[in-house]
């Protein structure tokens, strides 16, 4: 079978570049200053994130893998026949393959759509699935979450077969609690119909030291991953960031339950020329936020689902009780 990758990006490439540049500048003008989290995910960023997932300290990945290793068959059995499965941010497919082969083992006809931001990484990931998938057909979708949601709404209007949205890796944590709820609610409203399902991996509010270490590894891989975001941003801003002016800083806010990743200025940094106003002046010690990783207590998860019209069907948890995979339906 020829590799199928559909470009679903709503904007032509040049427009997307303009949007990125505008998002970066808007972020730097806001108070406190920030960079858009998606700046972390160019092709190099996806590779570095993949390296993070191989770190022992980055437990969310290992926890989710252990859940899928143990329960993929159970999850596959809970999915409807002839379903369309769409994964938001499929990454390297290292985890998803466990589910795909479980579905194949049960001989359930399924079309699996893998959505991600980098078409080169998408190609690699799909090519890396060895053959032997006869019941599961695999299609790549090149675009953002938003492109994916819109594409899904269009696909939904053409077919009424069961739809399953897969959102693994606790990626929901990269949205604030309010954003996460409205993202899910919008999905439910625009792209799903009663009976459709969501499979969502969510990291719990674990021991603060363990969470902090997950984002501050001794090998400095996370640091490299975060710094790559600055290099990526530089491609849109004529290289205004000098990497040697910045350091990575990770903070876990244990009361609120989120980890925050910053670029922290090692000396006064003057970006007024490109930012266009005084907010471009960042004195030594100033922080530019690039990522938040929110964690959920069981109660917070329950009210999240409740608030957006999603009903829990099943939940699978790792042996250490640190992470859950939720199957919910509309
Ligand atoms: C993809 N996302 C859920 C990861 C997280 O845990 O927030 C990205 C990451 N950032 C640093 N390490 C991993």
Written overview of the protein:
The protein is an alpha/beta fold and 330 residues long. 40% of the residues lie in helices and 23% in strands. It has helices at 13-29, 43-53, 59-78, 96-105, 119-128, 145-158, 177-190, 208-214, 221-234, 272-275, 298-307; strands spanning 5-7, 83-88, 110-116, 136-142, 163-167, 197-203, 246-253, 258-265, 269-270, 281-282, 287-294, 311-317, 323-329. The protein has an 8-stranded mixed beta sheet with strand order 1-4-3-2-5-6-13-12, sandwiched between helices. Strands 7-8-11 form a 3-stranded antiparallel beta sheet. The protein has a two-stranded antiparallel sheet with strand order 9-10. β3 (110-116), α5 (119-128) and β4 (136-142) form a beta-alpha-beta unit. The longest helix has 20 residues, at 59-78. The mean pLDDT is 94. The chain binds N,N-dimethyl-L-histidine. Residues 52, 60, 169-171, 173-174, 215, 222, 291, 293 line the site of N,N-dimethyl-L-histidine. N,N-dimethyl-L-histidine binds next to β11.
